[in-house]
Amino acid sequence: MPAHESNKVIALEHPSGSKAEIALFGATVTSWIVDDIDHIFVSKDAKRDGSKAIRGGIPICFPIFGTKEKIALPQHGFARNNYWEYLGIVNDNDEVTVRFGLKDTQIPQEARNAWPHSFRLTYTVSLTEKSLKSVCHLKNEDEDTFEFNTLLHTYFRVTDVTRTQVQGLTNCEYIDKVNAGAKLVEENEKVTIDGEVDRVYKKVQDKILLEVGDGSSIQIEKNNLKDTVVWNPWVEKAQAMGDFGNEEYKNMICVEAGSVADWVVLAGGQTWTAGQTLTVV
Ligand SMILES: O=P(O)(O)OC[C@H]1O[C@@H](O)[C@H](O)[C@@H](O)[C@@H]1O
């Protein structure tokens, strides 16, 4: 991709005034504005030249989440680190939809060697007055079965993370990544943030609610995704990240819908569809 196109962004506008922007790099949603408020966080220090996954927005983790010993891919896989093909916008009265595509032939040979499968990933982002829907369609173009993980790594913009609350995780088992991977059960009715949090909640109900802390809430509804990751880097991790401001942990919370605790198995020739809808309520 020529350098001048490396930060190319597709803009969506709905007749109601809601707006969204999606970067071709990683097909990463970088803005979602409803009633003049941008609900998506992107760091002021995010790299926007294709040299690194965009720090913020909704990067897509695929085909792995985190790192995997046996698969020599960078953390969270290759989908967020490559340019996707722009497949066009469709406008109808109720929603504006854009489509992007990523195939194995579009990713570097090194990544194809690490995860040697033929696939076609189509990603649609639809904007309505109050909602943003993201859907992944994955086709296994091999004859053999493959396994993968995927996750919509959504960074929400908040004014004070200590005032946010996540509702809907009660009684879910979770892996506490800041506690040596301890397996715990969520006992709180609402999850709050007052320190570093990095948890993989398993088998989560499809509708959960993020109370932003200023009176507004965002409903996060996932479809065909089992798990929810909640992440805030807090002080030390924020300082350690080169593409994240030292104080920015106060203004974001990641609530990430995915299937990451177990592999998803997709037989040759089959298609798998999953996604999330965010709605300002
Ligand atoms: O720095 P990255 O690769 O974008 O990852 C950010 C975070 O992403 C979260 O989803 C993970 O649970 C964290 O462990 C990780 O630190």
Structure description:
The chain is mainly beta. The protein has one domain: Beta-galactosidase, Chain A, domain 5 (Distorted Sandwich). Helix content is about 5%, strand content about 45%. The protein contains two helices and 21 strands. Strands 6-7-8-9-21-18-17-12-15 form a nine-stranded antiparallel β-sheet, with no helix packed on it. Strands 5, 10, 11, 13, 14, 16, 19 and 20 form an eight-stranded antiparallel β-sheet that branches. A four-stranded antiparallel β-sheet has the order 1-2-3-4, with no helix packed on it. Strand 3 (about 30-35) and strand 4 form a beta hairpin. The protein is globular and about 45 Å long. The model has no long low-confidence stretch (mean pLDDT about 95). Bound molecules: 6-O-phosphono-beta-D-glucopyranose. It catalyses: alpha-D-glucose 6-phosphate = beta-D-glucose 6-phosphate. Catalyzes the interconversion between the alpha and beta anomers from at least three hexose 6-phosphate sugars (Glc6P, Gal6P, and Man6P). Its EC number is 5.1.3.15.
What's this entry about, in short?
With 281 residues, this protein is mainly beta.
SSE map:
Elements: E1 9-13, E2 19-23, E3 28-34, E4 37-38, E5 60-61, E6 85-91, E7 96-103, H1 109-114, E8 119-127, E9 131-140, E10 146-152, E11 155-157, E12 165-167, E13 173-176, E14 182-185, E15 190-191, E16 197-201, E17 207-211, E18 217-223, E19 227-232, H2 234-240, E20 252-266, E21 271-280
Antiparallel strand pairs: 1-2, 2-3, 3-4, 5-10, 6-7, 7-8, 8-9, 9-21, 10-20, 11-20, 12-15, 12-17, 13-14, 13-16, 16-19, 17-18, 18-21, 19-20
